[in-house]
Fold these 4 entries.
Entry 1:
Amino acid sequence: MSLASTNKQDTRCWHAELSLSYKKSRGRSVIARREHVGPLVTQKPFYPEGDEVCHTYLLHPPGGVVGGDQLTVNIDVQSDAHALVTTPASTKFYRCDDRHARQNQNLSVADNAILEWLPQDTILFNQAHVNTVTRIDLTSQANFAGWEIVCLGRPASGELFNDGYCRQAFEIWRAEKPLLIERVALTGGSELLNAKWGMAGYSVMGLMVVVSANKAMLELARSVETVNNGLGSVTLINDVLVCRCLANQGMETREYFTRVWQALRMEWIGRPAELPRIWNT
């Protein structure tokens, strides 16, 4: 099913939108509504953990985002449903001309529902111009765990992030009150990228958040082996566990966050971690 769209758009650009709504039906978490416009779709859901957890893979067939493109993802997890959402590959923002690329991700979770938002990394090519916003809206009894990983340039290929910018916002709201508000403005070649008070010369930064956490989970997270040749930290703000990472490779950051997620999941929701199968391909 496609979303009706009457907006005029530059034919050189992709304006893609995907909306998913999950519900609990006869003991199974299912996609109750799926609508899309443009090249942003999903694979058939998987159930490696049984009917309780719906694993979903978001697909962007063009493989990359250029100036003028706009991607929007809307996810709604209704009461008692459980969705785990990931991507099969990195999201790539390519070099832009005078236009910038936009990415909006709107995630909402109802009481006694669970959303695990585990995308692979986002790669910003040199001269990319990007605005990205992720907003998570939770009710008072909702559960959320997720991460975002940003890679600046492609150092392994000799391409540094010397030019361009990324404005990134990450917000979590519960019962219409802010739990965590993050704002990051990255400019290619700026002092921030190398200063000790900034990224200290690392090319990858990651943020992981678990809502409905406790002190036992904080200790479990702190016991996890951190990133080789990188920096990791874990804090607990009320019931929000915040894990941060600076590293040289996106894969190292994802593997670190995955170890934290595996260590916490049983304490958090009473289930052992089941890695998305797509990560093995």
Note: The mean pLDDT is 92.
Entry 2:
Amino acid sequence: MSDARPVLVLVSGAPGSGKSTLAARLATDLRLPLLTKDAIKEALLDAVAAPDRSRSRELGAASFAVLYAVVGRLLDAGVGVVVEGNFRRGRSEGELQPLAARTRTRLVHCETRPEATIRHYAERAARGERHPGHHDGAALADLRRDLDAGIYAPLELGIPTLRVDTTAGYTPDLEAILAFAAGAGRLE
């Protein structure tokens, strides 16, 4: 008997851990829509100003609320989805658990050494690759603190979880990640 519930693939990790790139690849290969917190936040940033880090954080929280609402609507329609965000352990589970309970959910968690995450994040900020409303330069100290506190550890959702080392490509490899996300994976 097959499980008709929609697929929900959560891609998590710290900012700068490679989750956006991997989520885009998973969505393409799995032929699922991709929703990201940053895409929503950047649309909000274009509509309303975020002159400082405090306002950027407020819009980040609003972006997560919109993300969860849209994901819920897609799932209600029976549409599977890949969802990417810098979910926070101990905070994000409350919103994600009800979504996971009604889907075939997989968590793909991207991670690398903290110093590599910080370096990648700082380099990206220096290149100005992201919307200026993120205030990435001012957020570097927050990232260091959050990494030290374990905020970006894998979420505790009681679902199949795959930890992916993004230090030099993907470990496990992309084929194994795709198999896991498609439901062929194992519980961690």
Note: The CA atoms of residues 122 and 140 lie 7 Å apart.
Entry 3:
Amino acid sequence: MRRGDCLVLNDTRVIAARLAGRRQPSGGAVEAFLLEKQAGAQCWQALLRPGRRLPVGASVRIENSEEGFVVEEKLPDGSFLIRFSTAQVYELLQEHGHTPLPPYIKRADELADKERYQTVFAKVPGAVAAPTAGLHFTEEILSALEQRGVRLLRLTLHVGAGTFKPVECENIEEHRMHEESFVLSAETAASINACRQKGGKVFCVGTTTVRTLEACWNPENGLVQPQSGRSDIFLYPPYQPRIVDGLLTNFHLPKSTLLMLVCCFAARDRVLAAYQKAIAAKMRFFSYGDCMLLLPEGREEKTNN
């Protein structure tokens, strides 16, 4: 990366989204996995286990706490709307919640995961999974890039649990993407547009930043527009990135939408050949795994290192 380039980071912060509780008054064990805050500080969408035994009106107390929640509604997708007894839900999670490690990590979360499963630039709470490519960065690396003249830019996309959902339909156009909330500020959008107009390159850390920028691309003027809202953008070949010149990303799981997004940056056979080399070298995949730099087809000549 050179002076005049920019590096785009996702500053979302992972919440300790798993809560253990007991149903009142029976005492049966309940696990809640919070997905997203709804209107009002006390209402959240959540997955509940065992969901079939928790009717509307069921009351749950969080273990080792005086606080709890009530089941307000069962939603069509199988999740629930719950209402906490306190508005200080983030504080409750910080004290009693567990880090929502992905299901393919076959161990319980540890105390160290509360910080280890965060990027050093995490700021805005709301994600239930880490933007994993960002986990590779240290303050020293970011400082060195800035000293080189690379502009560090931030956006927010709260990674949802749907990021782990595999593509199960034969025709990928039938796959329904999950929605995630995002914010692209006017300052970040202006800096990206200025970088590109001056001949600089836009590098993204993670697929979440790619999805946000491509969702905010305006085909009428070729610029990214500041926006906030929800996105369900699904990127797969033959789509060509409009804004992004390089992607730093982890190795993704088979049948995932993220692996398909990666193939927008290089031909599928080249990507799969790289994956075979990663497997042969015993590299680690996805969260807490290794990473790679991808450049879109035909753009390799733009970057010398």
Note: The radius of gyration is 20 Å.
Entry 4:
Amino acid sequence: MAEITRAIKKWSSRDAQRCIVVPSDLDHKYSRGVIGIITGSAQYPGASVLTTSAAAATGIGMIRFHSSSGLAHLVLHTTPSAVVQPGKVSGWLIGSGIPAKKYSDISTWLRHRWFKLAKLQSVPTVLDAGALYLAGSLEQPTLILPHSGELSVLLTARGVPVSVESIEADPKKWVQVAASTLGVAVLLKGSRTYVANDQLLIELPVATPWLATAGSGDVLAGIIGALVATNSIEILNDVNHLARVAATGAFIHAQAAKFASRGGPISAEMIVIEISGAISQLLD
């Protein structure tokens, strides 16, 4: 395998600030971005709640939550502003909390059927967990959010066999390999997060280890999904902007976790509560 050497960019608060779209007096809910979310399953229902609540806290004009398995009731209990009817969106977040294509129950099968909507509306799309297999098959700008285990499976299936241990030993290398192999932007989650596409390699500051908790990745996905939807026009006009937005989402996620932790343990729900404050500090 040829050595991949991109110049590394260390992401800062000033970089992140440039990717936060602040509404003007002329904006309305549609102009501020509409995110379409297909997340959660009967097996992992909490992912639908965490992704939607995190997206709402990040700042979005509207959330369209797509559900065929009764998850809408859970989402509306915590995010009553969400709309549970299909419609036009400016960005997609799909796959969080949805098992891969092993249809263990009818709800999982139904959720995968909804994925076809992403191909019908060619807007920037974020793939997570059960939707990672779609990487490289969509025409629109695409970002994937794997951890090392998921990336190992994905790359091995695409003819680049690699172990989880190898990825964890050199994430900077393998995030670049993944971006080149799959033709998408890649955010590789870990103790230190990296983002890469064909041209960029971004390194995030080390986040608090208390972030290693159930649901944290779903919160990250919701933050990034909202940022992608609000930055949709910029992403469509600049191939590198999707990677920058992904890095900004990871930066906000880490800051919110830091505020929630204050040196102690946290839960995913606690991170959501601190998202707005983390963004406010960046804008200040």
Note: Residues 8-283 form a domain with the UDP-N-acetylmuramoyl-L-alanine:D-glutamate ligase fold (CATH 3.40.1190.20).
